[in-house]
Design brief:
Helix content: 40-55%
Order of helices and strands: HH
Strand content: under 5%
Number of domains: 1
Length: 50
């Protein structure tokens, strides 16, 4: 299942401050999460609802 990811304007402003290499790695990581929301090795957060 694929997901749609929306980036808030204030988050995009922060991303725009990244160096090009860091920006591309971050963009790829976000895209990968839209394809596989629970990649192998991820841990479920505990202690909070939601």
């Amino acid at each position: 299942m694929n997901y749609v990811v929306f980036i808030l304007r204030r988050a995009q402003k922060e991303l725009d401050r990244f160096l090009a290499e860091t920006y591309e790695r971050t963009k790829a990581a976000i895209w990968n999460l839209s394809q596989e929301s629970r990649p192998t090795g991820c841990q479920e957060l505990t202690g909070r609802e939601g």
